[in-house]
Hints:
Number of strands: 5
Shape: globular
Order of helices and strands: HEHEHEHEHEHH
Helix content: 25-40%
Radius of gyration: 18 Å
Distance between the termini: 39 Å
Structural class: alpha/beta
Mean pLDDT: 89
Strand content: 5-15%
Number of helices: 7
Strand order of the largest sheet: 2-1-3-4-5
Largest sheet: 5 strands, parallel
Low-confidence stretches: 1-25
Oligomer: single chain
Amino acid sequence: RSILGMTFAMTAAAVAAAAAVASQGVSDPNNCTAQCTGPPGPLSAQFPNVLLMGDSISAEGSGYYENVRAILSANDTTKQAEVQHVGGYGKGICGTSYGAVACFPFWAGTQGKWTVIHFNWGLHDICASMYAPVTTEEYISNMGVLIKEMRSALAPNGTLIWSTTTPVPPSYTARNNSDVVVINAAMKSLLDQPENSDIVQVDMYATVVHRCQMDAATEGYPKTSDCDVLQSRGVHFSDAGKQFTGIVTANAIMQYLY
């Protein structure tokens, strides 16, 4: 494929993303669509299609994506779903929920609808030093818009699954766990509204904390101690932690595939 052809395709994709945002009435004052990563791959005509939308906690390499895919899409004999991940983010404010809102129409693709969309987003919105300042009110407003976008990308009888933002260990200085508690509480208030009663809520935060507090050495997690067995890379998880969160995520998705 020629460089010229690839450049044209990328430009066309960016234009399509901007058009998709505009068609849904989503403003993009920060021009984040210019930083959106590529659309998903082809959807399966044989299996339910699952979209994991999230930051690095859910992504390939740094998160639980591979483990979810291994459980649900290991091979054609045991395969239960086609699993894909989106959520590549831009710089500055485009790495926050502002960018997620702008990019989601592009991330969702135009090839079909999703059986399940599992989403997690929060850690970028509480890290102004790496991205940009975002108030809790702005975060919740953006998540409300994002939920509307995701609903439009669901297949008939499809399901949205929200996973709470995971803890910040006390040794990590770029973020504060108290902010995680605040945005998780704000998201719960949003999702507990009657109009959002269809969204499945998975408390990954509480699940991780419970596991870590089972060990005497880490029973103070996340207030006074780290939990290296699950979370040994700052806010990111160890290999065991990625397996643990992958199992929790896959289990949440399984019951909504058919």
